[in-house]
Amino acid sequence: MPRRLVELPLLRRLKPGLHVYEEEALNAEPGLALLDESITPIDSFFIRNNGELPEIGDEREWTLTIDGEVERPTVWTVAGLRQRFEEVTVTAVLECAGNGRSQFSPATDGLQWRLGAVGCARWTGVRLADVLEHAGPKPSAVYTAHHAPDRQIGKPEKAALSRGLPMAKALAPETLIAFAMNGEPLPRLHGGPLRIVAPGYPGSAWQKWLDRVSLRPIEHDGEKMRGTDYRLPIQPMRPGDALEPANFAVITDMPVKSLITTPVDGFSVKSGERLTVGGFAWSGAIPLASVQLSSDGGESWQEIPLQPGEGVFAWRRFETEISAERAGPFVIMARAHDVAGNSQPLEIVWNPRGYCNNQVQRVRGSAVA
């Protein structure tokens, strides 16, 4: 039986509200109304795969190998990791680098995500730094390489994904080898029994089904880390420009962004009544500063208070009420800013792979008499 016929029922049973893409690999995202919670429920969290889901078997027998540029190559079981190292929880946003790709014009290649390939969860595990330091990184180690048993569809000899992290990020205190999500054992659909958690970095760097971390003396060149994969142009580009891989750099920190989760596109409100507008804002390595809201299509803006988040890598809630003063169509927009002065652009900054779209979102509705 084709794998997708086995995987689809699993996805639909565990995540009944998600839109499933008609691709061979299993990919699905929620509507924005399902993202209206500070901690995204597992059954509302998006799914991104580059290949087939691997067979897991008995999770008690799962092992993680640490090798490469280390003094002491080591093999761990999940139980061994939990016994040897401090257990920590980090609340962090996970977002696919291609989230919002469907808004690019002209269209780019890649999965045409809407805006729901993002969520915020509590991730529990052990620090990658502690595990690597136990193995003794050599001075030559500059990058990690992450490996997993998932394979490309129709090409079982090729890994579906093998990405890595610069050593500075691998050794950062927020970077985890996770075995739990929102207080539950890490689900298979989300990479269980082990995955990388790299807060602020794109989802591709959060390797699922982790079974090996190898330290390398060069930037990792595994599957989806070559050419223009998960890379942005160093200089602005226009449609039709030549693609020279040397002019692209690996995506590290995700840009500042916000998402209106209520109301949703096509909303209706009686003129003269108050309408609640809410959502979330987040950033990568640069802390979030503020969010502004416009209810007149961007002609005027007002700053909206940000509620506290669960740590620097969690998204933060904003919520306010606006008045629909007269009948007719109107557009609500939110615009986030970080402390370095970066803000969401009003229009898409084009790139040939459709990555890191943080364009200001427009939610269109109408007030009726």
Protein described:
- With 369 residues, this protein is mainly beta.
- It has two domains: 248 residues, Oxidoreductase, molybdopterin-binding domain (Sulfite Oxidase, Chain A, domain 2), CATH 3.90.420.10; 112 residues, Sandwich (Immunoglobulin-like).
- The chain is 8% helix and 33% strand.
- It contains four helices and 23 strands.
- The strands form seven sheets. Strands 5, 6, 10, 11 and 12 form a five-stranded antiparallel beta sheet that branches.
- A hairpin with a 2-residue loop joins strand 8 and strand 9.
- The longest helix has 12 residues.
- The chain is globular.
- 43% of the residues are buried.
In short:
With 369 residues, the protein is mainly beta.
What attributes does this structure have?
369 residues, mainly beta, Sulfite Oxidase, Chain A, domain 2, Immunoglobulin-like, 2 domains, 5-stranded antiparallel beta sheet, 5-stranded mixed beta sheet, 4 helices, 8% helix, 33% strand, globular
